[in-house]
């Protein structure tokens, strides 16, 4: 267990890389999206502009302590995931603080930010926030079902919950990747990922044209800036989780960037093709094929 | 002869029970009950009877000399007691019938079904 | 020593003298009779005392100096002394009770009364069968006379039915007697019996007729419509006599003539008793008229004793003692109940709520009801226990089932009645009359009941272990019930603390019991602290709380099955009275009690079957069950699962916990549920991980646990009532615990303990705080709350921490449970159950968010604008518990390592190893302390950063939100809370459609309808009843011919 300053600084560096890559990735995806709909889209540096603008806004309104803490919790959720996630396989420094816990810690730490955000938005008192949260929670319960099944399948396959060990087991050949050794679990997890990233058809939580922006409705200025920061970190970290579990991990930042791009792109790709589900539809959808595939992925390894 | 008496007793018992079950009139039911009691008493006597034996109260029959054996006195004593008790029960029943009649002004058994379930 | 003949002499003398007295001095006559009865009681009591001391032998006396049949032979042995004492003293008390009515009616009724008591004395003492007949008839006549003289108009109808049917029965008896006499030549009961056992058999028909006529006198189901009419129509004072004295005598007579009929009839007697016990109680369930209900119950109890008499070959020389335990409970309880019924003077059991005006009578009423059902510390408890154990040892499982089923059915209506008295509104109009002379006999019967419970205990050899001090303490608290809450609360807390210190050495070195002792009594003290916030006197609360905690503590110190079950029942009774205190708790406390009693009887059945293969009834011996082990384990497990509210047996919990008082909810949820967990643990430890007979059980329990969790959490998400939400959450948490322990692996048990401890901590906090808020805001509905974070910040923080634990979010201790769960499931290979559990775990977020959001966040309602923080007395225990959570979260190793060592011996391998603060399994690793540090540091840094960025954030007023430039002044329309998971419900809400509730509803409707259908045979017609009796006799004659 390494609590040294250099470790801390390297981790900060990793966080910085992830943050910027996350922003670049999101602007890229938005551009792709725009092209699909026949628009030109935003410039690639738009997220940075937005961030600077948000952080420097002068009017700051707070609805109360929990409202204030909500973004902190949310960002802590993203940063925490990053901290507990081994980013670069084989790198002593960019394993971050993953010695604190294994895959299960990652799975449950997701809730940290979600809960804090939900509470903060709740104190904002805006009805749309509550509606967004209720939708998000409802959908999330079933998103996790195929994911859980896939994780169990993986744990049976590799007989470990340690992400580093799972990555290590996939080294050597591309054929050692989980996507080839356990395709069913991969499919289940990748379908679950669609919901986790919250793009269409599963973007009812923020539903821009029904309940503009959902939970963060009341957030603005630096609060929203914090949330945006977190979004960038979270997308990369979550994509890195799937990369680690199913696509052989990454031994360098370049590899990480390429792999996370394609993992993220998968959800954007589906999102541009399919229209939005209503909540009862998405809930049922996740409990159908993804779950069945997940169950089979376990049966195959029992 | 004994069989006739036994059969008579049993018939009276059955008749009494039948009367208790079938009669509509309360007084008739009480009467049926006394029939039942009488049948019982006859049955008891006949069971305790010993052929060719004399009544237990007599030691000799005038003109016929000593009685060689007497009928067991106990059943007869029992019957006496039973008759007395039967009397008491019948009297009490009639008292009830009177009270019931005062209550509803009828003796029809079907009028007295207030207590049920 | 005054000879027993003087009982008769005094009675007859007084009866005749009364006639001379004339009508002039009515009350003088009453006093005269009272004195006579006192003398009779004295005579029988002195024989009883002397015989018990052993200073004299029982005697047989012959009147007039002749041998039978020319004289009457009377016997005065121990049995006769006991029974005559019971009858004479009941006569004395009845006369006292009936004083006013008797005096008004004149001396005739006093004469009849005296003859009635006397006749019962003679029937008990006589050894001559014809004499028996005579005095039986006298008893009939006297009783009919009593009914006629002192009764309502309907009593006349009952009286004539009684006369006719008993006339038929005694007719048959006469035939039987004469037939027996003609074959044997004697009327002496012993003579006939010895002839029967000796060279030649008397005509079978004679034995049958004698037997059946005594059975008919006992009013066997279903040929007993006339008997019930007598109970329901006669004056309650007479009802007490019929039930307490007449029925007792009848049972003894049956016992006395049994040898005449012969041993081959014993099975037959048992069967008749069983049918009566079940049938009469079943019919009683549909009854709402108190006297009639008592009649059904009396006949049911008589059926039970009849069964016991028939089971002589199995019960051996304990038969009479065991019968006596039931009889004495029934005697005292039923006399008391009839007397109370006379005072309440209503035709509906719903009007018994008037009893609340007389707390002592209400308490006695409760004691009588519990004594009838067979709760400790009453004699019937010991009796039923020993009967069942003996039956188990002889493998008579069907009789065990009959006794338990009958007792349960009896509880159905008795508990309903008790609930009505405690909870229903007082009747608008009532004719009740609580005259002191009427109350005194009831008090005395209460004393008799408690006294006999205490006195009879040494006769049950395993009852020595029982600790009565807590029960006395409960009694003491009842005695000082007039004091204000704060004093009683302090005394209770001090009592619990003292008891804790007292018990701690007893559980030294036994970590399992130490953990539960801390939860039971430590938790008890903490939840009681909240009681300081209550006002008024809370009558009865503290006695009952002590009862519950005494029961809980007793579970821990129990060495044998007997004391375990004793404590279990004490706890059940105490908790029932606590739960029913809630405003709308009546139906929920009722179903709680029924499930508890049902579960307790399953446990009892399991213990009884286990007794078959054990030497003794030590708890540890459960591991050596060889007879039907799977059944034993399954029965006991299901019994405990009624307390842990597992799926199918859970329907009582939401209401019981949701509607209970604000500080009772945490007691019954955080603490009481753990009793079931403790029971299951004891059972599982006894069975052992490798027991071949229980693998299927664990597999099934695992699935039940998983499904319970899913259903519990999903139901919680759809609740609008804050406390019910928590209650469903409890169901789910207990599902986790059941699942974890069912895995029967080392790490699974660690997960189970983690969940148990966590649930204790957070559920106590949540119920304390939410309960207090519900009271403060005056509504259970969460959508009527909102915005309380600003009013009640401390409550909010406590609730927030609790829900973080429930959710299993790192870094708090809930995550330890989740992590252990994942490892345990992978190790055990229960993947799909596990997936279900995790799915359920995420659904938990739905209700957790709903709870904290709806209550604390969103928009504050207009009528709550002036709310203040809840009482500090609620916050103090909550924050003490939060300290517990924090310690457990930061130093999980210090808690889990000892537990791990403790459960090591039960399993083959230890799968969890520690490296510093890091826990490792073969699968993964987790370092709770490091996570705390990392998360804590990062959180503070980020918070600092945001504070730097938005230091000048300006607080805004309510409703100042981005709302299309409008200001929504109505909080009701802005606070989105009601049915917020509508979409979810639409999608998979069908999973929690209340099929189980519907099932149980229909089951209870079915039972009631069935009972209603059966009781239609009681058409009210004399002639039908006569037909029933004759049919009954014929059918049983055929059975006795064919089956014996």
Give a structural overview.
The complex is a heterotrimer of chains A (302), B (117) and C (1044). Chain A is an all-alpha fold and 302 residues long. Chain A is built from 12 helices and 1 strand. Chain A has one domain. In chain A, 70% of the residues lie in helices and 1% in strands. The radius of gyration of chain A is 19 Å and the shape is globular. The two termini of chain A are 35 Å apart. The termini of chain B are far apart. Chain B has a two-stranded antiparallel sheet with strand order 1-2. Chain B has one domain (2-51, 71-110): Helix Hairpins. Chain C is mainly α and 1044 residues long. Chain C has a domain at 1-127. Chain C is built from 40 helices and 6 strands. In chain C, the strands form 2 sheets. In chain C, strands 3-4-5 form a 3-stranded antiparallel β-sheet. Chain C has a two-stranded antiparallel ribbon with strand order 1-2. Chain C is elongated. Chain C starts with a helix and ends with a helix. The chains are: A mainly alpha (302), B mainly alpha (117), C mainly alpha (1044). Chains A and C meet through strand 1, helix 3, helix 4, helix 5 and helix 9 of A and helix 31, helix 32, helix 33, strand 5 and helix 36 of C. Strand 1 of chain A pairs parallel with strand 6 (954-955) of chain C.
Number of separate helices of chain C: 40
Query: What does the main sheet of chain A amount to?
Result: none
The fraction of residues assigned to DSSP E strands of chain A is under 5%
Strand order across the largest sheet of chain C: 3-4-5
Count of β-strands of chain A: 1
Q: What multimeric state do the chains show?
A: heterotrimer
* Distance separating the two termini of chain A: 35 Å
**Largest sheet of chain C at a glance?**
3 strands, antiparallel
Number of strands of chain C: 6
Biggest interface, which chains? A-C, 81 and 81 residues
Rg from Cα of chain A: 19 Å
- Number of continuous helical runs of chain A: 12
Mean pLDDT of chain C, as a whole number? 90
